[in-house]
Amino acid sequence: MTRMPWLVVICVAGAMVATLGRATTPLVAQTPAPATKKAPAALAPAKAPATFGIGRPATSADIAAVDIDIGPDGTGLPPGRGTAANGAPIYAARCAGCHGKTGKEGPNDILVGRLPGDAFPFARDPRAPKTIGSYWPYATTVFDYIRRAMPPDAPGSLKDEEVYGLVAYLLAANELISQDAVIDAASLPKVKMPAREHFVPDTRGRAKPAAGPNRR
Amino acid sequence: MKVSRRDLLAGAAGAVALGKTAALQSGQPPADPTKVRGKPSRALGQRAPTEKPQRQPRGVTSSGTPHQDLYGTITPADLHFERHHGGVPEIDPKTYSLLIHGMVARPTVFTLADLKRFPAVSRVHFLECSGNFGGRGTTTELTPQQIAGLTSTSEWTGVALSTLFREVGASPKAKWFLAEGQDAAVLTRSIPMSKAYDDAMVTYGQNGEAIRPEQGYPARLFLPGWEGNASVKWLRRIELSDHPFMTREETSKYTDPMADGTARIFSFLMDARSLITYPAYPVTLTRGWVEINGIAWTGSGKIRRVDVSTDGGVTWTPAKLQEPVLSKAHTRFRYLWNWTGGEAVIMSRAVDETGYVQPTKEKLIASRGVSSVGYHTNPITGWRVRGDGTVIYHADPWTTT
Questions:
Q1: pLDDT single digits (tens) B273-294
Q2: Residue numbers in B near A144 (CB within 8 A)
Q3: pLDDT in tens, B183-200
Q4: What band does B396 get if pLDDT is binned at 50, 70 and 90?
Q5: Structural domains in chain A?
Q6: Of B226, B244, B254, B294, which residue is most buried, by most CB within 10 angstroms?
Q7: What is the ipTM of this complex?
Q8: Both B361 and B241 in a single domain?
Q9: 68-127 of B, contacting A, C-beta below 8 A
Q10: What whole-number distance in Å separates Cα of residue B267 and Cα of residue A208?
């Protein structure tokens, strides 16, 4: 606050100089800028080092606390196991409210259902639901996603055993495994998902693009 | 010529009109502002009370940018679109950290202050949700915001991801990395390492200030030109690997069924698109000169040309592009048109520096199928100017035959 009056004075004076400057010759003689001297080596801009030494080394505890992802080969799956019978009551209590009594009713994502002959009509039939059985290409994703984000009212709250049970319940409901199959770190990555063969890499923009509007 | 929001409000429904009256009663501007001393300086600026641009929420998980209310190319940060899968988290910047691990020589934890110590870079880029198309049906009373509100442009500041990867000693054998958010969805996407060595960033600045919570405060991944979902917000972890992780977002969502019975996976690139933002619903034109203008953008680099048609796509003429045309950024195009009355359909068509031409709806359907409704839908879009000057969306319904 104490500096405010000076600021006002400077501003007013500056405005006066600017006004005078427009009306008359410049009040201050223009002097050429001094020639740039080469900075001493110590002051010259540094080249980037190999490392900056920023950050701290991560401990195994740091990593274990957040390293929750499951790879498509099952990497990261925890100990534990579950069957559809284990998962059914958990589904009814924690999932059915959003996904429906049998996983087919919604109102949120439809989770259960296969299409005749495992058809893949999603580009032409807007009614074909993208369920775990009809559209999901990897069974490991079901475990990863439920454990990290479900249920929305208590995300990440399910125990590993509960998640294994839910995964078994959903895979069995989709007739991807038998009702009595045990799902664990060894069996989950082996579940065959009918949709997987339909997924292809995106080739847009990779090679020389097709001429003009011919790109798909 | 341009019909202002105030004019529109004046003719709108009762509730809106009441709101206007109340606003004017409380803050009526003086008849002659030169005869009344103005307001004092203040710590935080605000919009003029008569300017009320708003995002338009769709449910609780997204809201769109009001393109019809904006000029130029930069989106004000509070009007940047939002899309989230577990709500907007509140993160304490003092305890925030980013872990980089996996196929690296030195697994490292970076605080926000650490990230800001690295050499920084600022770049102007658009960000677009790949689900950014709201014009499929028969409704004609749609604004630019409703048709394509999920794209915005900001100046993003942060550290190049390649700088961080060099710091931690990324293995040359790593081919993918997982990016993970600190939101309730703990959202994850697998990203090819090549993007890290191209132009990916970890950003903490947006239009000169800290990133807004809806855009990933305090730090997010930013992948220029790629679908917004992959630019993981509230970034807490990056894990380098030799394979993709096949997360829920990149398999059951954000994949594109094709008419040939396949589905594209890892379809990151946002193709070229344009949209006329004036004149557009709900303005009313008066006869005479109109500067048609709008935005065009492409994930493949720079917009090379935008063609405008005022006869429903029969003939096309190049518009003027506002300089500077920046790579992977909204580009404003302008086109002078003398509207002499009578019905007209106005359209725009973007061409990018690779030669890619924004497709018609019919071309998209031929390759993607009529019900491939989710993502990467960038058809040529038009507005119908009616004889009385009212402008409505030129609805072009996507119907199964």
A1: 999 999 999 999 999 999 999 9
A2: 188, 245, 247-248
A3: 999 999 999 999 999 999
A4: confident
A5: 81-198 (1.10.760.10)
A6: B294
A7: 0.90
A8: no
A9: 85-86, 99-101, 106-111, 114, 117-119
A10: 17
